[in-house]
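debug: dumping io for the single-chain case to check the tokenizer round-trip. Nothing else runs in this session.
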Amino acid sequence: MQAYLDHAATTPLRPEALAAMVPFLTEHFGNPSGSHALARRARRAVDEARQEVAACLGCDPGEVVFTSGGTESDNLAVLGVLGVHGVRPGKVLCSAIEHDAVRHACAAVGGAVIPVRASGEVDLDALADALGPEVRLVSVMLANNEVGTVQPLRAVAALVRARAPGARVHTDAVAAVGWLDVADLAVDADLVSVSAHKFGGPKGVGALVVRAGVMLAPVAYGGPQERDRRPGTHDVAGIVGMAAALRVATDGRAQAVRRVGALRDRMADGLRASIAGLRETAVRAGPGGVPERSAKVAASCHLCVAGVDNEELLVLLDESGVCASAGAACASGALEASHVLLAMGLDPAEARTALRLSLGHTTTDAEVDHVLAVMPKIVERLRA
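debug: decoded output
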């Protein structure tokens, strides 16, 4: 059988999203920027989807900017805010474990990196020391896409308001939707990035929440779409599919967290019991040494397998029908160790033993059983 455990890279399209998309790939194909009947039908679909996305993310419809996905949303947040003020070095801060879409955008404008603790949580003391009136943007992701750590975003926002009142707070919530109440946990953020294919929507579409009063300069030029913040013809089918998937993910979140969290715990506990020298990252030590995983999203199982090169492990897992990864999908094939793990204090050698098993809305007991059956044998073979 095949066990798909790479949902953090992308998760299967939900049936509800596909059903919502099909009419706009066939009969309702108009360009929503036009004025005739077909165009008006498409525009109405975009408006209705905007209302749905806004309701799920806890914002007003006019605060939703549709994009091509998380990467564009992150870039638009970082560069758009700085574009309003004029790009000058030292005016943007981000945590050391941000997705490259944030990290590289910040580096491009001379930003500074805030360290994280061994758990993956941002160092609030270091952030406090770095804040000042010259800071224009602070970006801290709500949940990490590699190790699953949930960040203390409310505390981050409170520090920014107190020490850099002119700064905006951005959060990359791409890995959080489906597992966390983004509407509540990101309420203090001025900008929030999401990506449809992480919660059962189609690839190539996402959104950036831009709160009322936040000035945002475009990073591309063309038409007046999205209130002049993001030009280009709308992907109507993608937007409609994203809204449908987001509604299903939001309504079913509590149940999904319980079900998937139990599967994750069973898999992680079983692997720990059957593979010596295996440790979980971004977990706290609970009573009796039992890992406490409450600071992670329910779908995240990130491991370091001592004495095993993760590239070799992934090849043999794939041959055995297990789809997994070593880290972020955008970094697949990279020879260097994960910047997330290095920032958390792992040395490069240990970071190269990392394995990311990420679960999702389609994960089954049978898939977990398959991993528990094949992975200990593979590790034993590699160590031998």
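debug: round-trip ok. Residues 174 and 210 are 15 Å apart (CA to CA).
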